[in-house]
Amino acid sequence: MLQLFQAGLLLVFLFGRQFLETRASDSSNQRARPSPTPDHQWHEAFDMTEHDADILNDRSLHDVADVYDNFFVPGASGWRDLNMTAIMREAEKQRQDAMQNGHSSRPVFIKQPVIPNTVLKRLSPDIIQNMTAAEVLQLADATEMSYESMTHLLSNLRPQEFDKLLSLSRNYTDFETESPDPTTAKAVIDSCHRHWGPVSQWTVSQVARLGPMLTSLNIEQIKQLNDEVLPEVIKAFARLGFQGQATRTLVLKAKRSWGAIGTWTLDKFTTLGPLQTYLTPQDLKQIQPGQLNFTSLLSLLGSLDLDRGQARAVINIAAGLPEWRWTLEQVQSLGKMTRFLDSRELRAAPASAFASPELLKELLPSDGRGHQQQTKEIARVLKESRGTVNDWTAEDFRSMGRAASGLEVNDLEQLDPSVVQGAIADIADAEYSPRQRNVLIEKYREARGSRDTSMSADEVRQMKGLAVGLSTSDLAHMDPQDVRESMDVFASNANKMKKTQKREIIKQLKEAPGGIQDAIQDMGDMVKELPLRDLDSLCTANFTAAADENSTGVAAAGRMNWTEGQSMKLFRCFKDEVLGSSEGEGGSSADLLTPATIRYMGSMAKGMSCDDVEGFVADDILPTVGAMMEQEGWSPRLLDCTHQKIKASLSAAHDDYTADFTEIEIAALRGQLLKELSVEELNSIPSSHCEMLYSEIGNEDLIGLKRDKRKALTSNALQCLGVDGQANTIEQDTMDIIGNLACDLEADMLRRLSSDVFTGNLYSMQKCCLNIDQMVVIGERLVQEMGSPNQWMSDTISDIGPLLVSLSELEIQNLEEEQFSLVAEDVMVRFAEYKDKWSRYCDVDLRPQDISSREEGFVTMAIKAKDALVAVAQADVSGRKRRDSTYSPTCNEIESLSDGNIAWTVDELGAMTVNTFDSCGYALGEVTGFSDAQLAALLDKAKEAWGQAADMTPDQISQLGHIASKFTAAEIGQLNLTETDTVYAIAQYNIYTSDQLSAGVGRFSELSGLSVTSLDSLDLTALANFLCGLTAVEMEDIASIAYQEAANAIGELRSCDAGQWATLKTKAVDGYGAINTWMPEVFAEVGSVVAGFTTQELSSLSDASIAGIKPHAVSLIPPQTLAAGWSSAQLSKLDQLQAEAVTEEQLAALSQEQRSALLEAEYGDDISLAEIEETTEVVVVEDDGDKDGNGAGNQSAGLVPTIIIMCNLMYRAISIT
């Protein structure tokens, strides 16, 4: 941190100031300083190809940098010393000039380059060796130094001055606990290498002086640490809770240095502290309780956020101790690990272990995902200890804490309203189902005495997560000030709220004192719902540049999670209002897009355009791009154009520019950008750096990278690491380096994983995009390493998780049911976590047989999970496979299975009780893979439970989800669609026919009494896909202002046709102006409406305009329109995601030249990898709808329904025999 130096060296600065002024007085009458070159572009005085490696000594300084002459004072033999007084005066002059020009609001981090880094990084060492520590500090205060400049200065300081910097920096109050400025810390670390020698030679006393700056060690430096200094470095990382690849490498270094974990003492675990989360389950299984104070170790591990595999490894060790009896004290000693206790272990624990809400917070996480069985088991124990539910007091209910969500709906309905009101603050922080929330909220309303009285802020705060159940109508009746004061609750639960609820909250905030601008910092992810027009009032220097109260390094607005379109708008606001790109100050925004500026902008910087990146100063490209890469989540387009800028800047002197890469370039670009370099460019990087290179790349989420490229990178990494011969066994060292590249190990390579390596990496392999060849090998290895599946225990099944799909159908069926039942929910939750990524990214590059193999495996696994849960629920265990009557699913099974509910047969769904459907039908409505027959059976069950369509209440309709797709158009015309939340709940899905859509919008209009002209933005948002039930002519009556306020919601729809999109396009033109005036963020906001553009409008779009178009919008453009509208040149400007969104029908309409351009857009500089693809079939997975992207009609056309029927028949046949 730069402040660390500034505070620590204050004494030196004050002591030396008088000396500096005296020393500078001799040169105060020197000739006047010439005017700067135009626009402050000092770097233009340099020819990069000629001077890149030059050192500015006396002669070259005189020739090239004459403009800085009065910044240097004569020495004995020429210009040797810096005139710091002159430099500081110039810096102050620039600040004064900026204030006079109206930029007094510029943050302090924006410094004019008094002496630019172009010159600083080339100063002669002779000049630097005459500098003092105080002068370095003053120089850093006057101009923003790049890593190269600061490293050059610090490396060439006299040793005593460098030591003074380090010693005085420790006087800073928060030196040990505050994260350092990354540029400063990295420069210090690398300068130490110059002063102290190689990292391997550093001493404990030297390392101790660096404190938190040690976290800037790169992975190569960490590997060189000697055993004596290792604990000191670990402590520095642990104090900051530092995360990342460097931390992982450090823990690996500790494991190798300290020997087998079974021999570790408690001190070693204590030294690691929070870094113990980097120990694998296999590591933790080696712990020997007899070698250390295991009770203390449990307390230490129990304070950490371990994952399931890690926690289960420790729990199994504890449970295996002779003295372990599941006493209260023993359960408490597990700390946070208690949330991973299975139902058998919970039953063994005393009821006193669940005696207070505080203890339950450890047992049950607030999100509840994957913990419903545990919650229900704890609720059962507590319920039995408290007697009849309708006799409970508020204290009884309060003591349930988060376990209250494990009670059945029928239990909650028995509670007296006053009991709910008295306990609300203690039971609200739990994961309730929609039905449970509705019951509790209604009880709470009743206890308040008046159902019509609006909720106050105090009441909302008491309700916590239950506030998700407040309807849009409830929110509309609240006082705007109460809504404003409740924002912390709403923001923390925004991901569970409907779009209509969030839009109503925003509407209320606009009316509250201070408006949106006052509330925005408390809105969390809800800011994503703000339309661009609402950002107009925020487009000021005061908003975009305001510092966060907790950090001066990032703007408050830069800490918010904006959409891509919002970031585009806010970045331009920042550039215009703060950097002054349109002002005639003699400086351009390109000069001011420095590393510190990019860091300060935070998430707003993601709105940069490729033109902005192209404007980066080439001579400072590495530190600038390095600052970008400190932030995750850059779009594929920005990563690509940043790669091209790097290439253009660094190849000016050398065509084969990556051949000169060192640790500095690799560390600056990080894996996020390195993976964008072509395979050829990466192959040119010296092999001596391949470990660092592929560690950086392997640490990234590579799932969006083209599969061909991933395979090439994996192969090259193994070859570079010397693992290319047939006899080589792949060990953990190699896996640690290649990281996520291991997902693309060929089948033969998977066979060569050592036994320990294979079992130790199961968890990381679960998220991989596997083809059928890989799955076959993994299935074989699972049986080979772990024995017959019918002998597997629950922890083994959990460790394998989604990889169960790699087993054969018979092997899955042979899994022991009781063991599987213990972890079925956990396995299905993890499968759901990866499923969305697989459908969005993996399936684009996988063959049809790869996808079908995974789906077949999932269906078989879902059926086994279902039957395992059912078997445990049966009273007659011996007869569970020969059921004479059709089984009736329970809520416990339904809520545990998630998308695995597709395993229920039509008969089983029909046998479900109405009470079960009433309590947990919502979970079935969320399932995306049901067949038409299953959906029809579920709708019949809904009618049995709630009556015909006309009889269903708004709350009941809201729970139907995908099931609503089986209503006829006539039935939709009878639904009670009076509540906007209800309309949105079923209209958000792209699953309806045109007749159903028309019936939906017609019914809403009928009940609300609103004409199309009267629909406001909230109505348009609520209608969602039902809006596409209006004719193109009817859409002409939509109010332009209503459209513009709802444009970002309408832009996500999929159900309209080209004529409707064309009409909505005219509304967009009314609101935003002519298309040729639209900024890129407008294209992002209007989304799908681009599908209504004419060929002429498409052909007129610039590269910047195309950059704003959403991938799903590309897929909606009519094939002939796209082919005639976009030239080959325009198609080549699509980014990877846009190119991948092109459908088979669109592709068929393109010429060969256009197809080649599209392939170029998809593969970029790795086009050679795609040559083989031109003659093969293109597999396209269409973008999903608002929620899941699969219409009911489309679902039945896939493989899953057929597979379900076949698997159920086969499984029954096997069971009978």
TrEMBL record:
Signal sequence range: 1-24
InterPro entries: Mesothelin, Stereocilin-rel, Stereocilin_LRR
Pfam annotation, one family: Stereocilin
Top-level taxon of the source organism: Eukaryota
Gene Ontology cellular component terms for the protein in this record: cell surface; membrane
A GO biological process held by the record: cell-matrix adhesion
Primary location group: membrane
Domain Stereocilin LRR: 225-479
UniProt subcellular location: Membrane
UniProt entry keywords in alphabetical sequence: Cell adhesion, Glycoprotein, Membrane, Signal
Family of the protein in this entry: Belongs to the mesothelin family.
The protein's name: Stereocilin LRR domain-containing protein
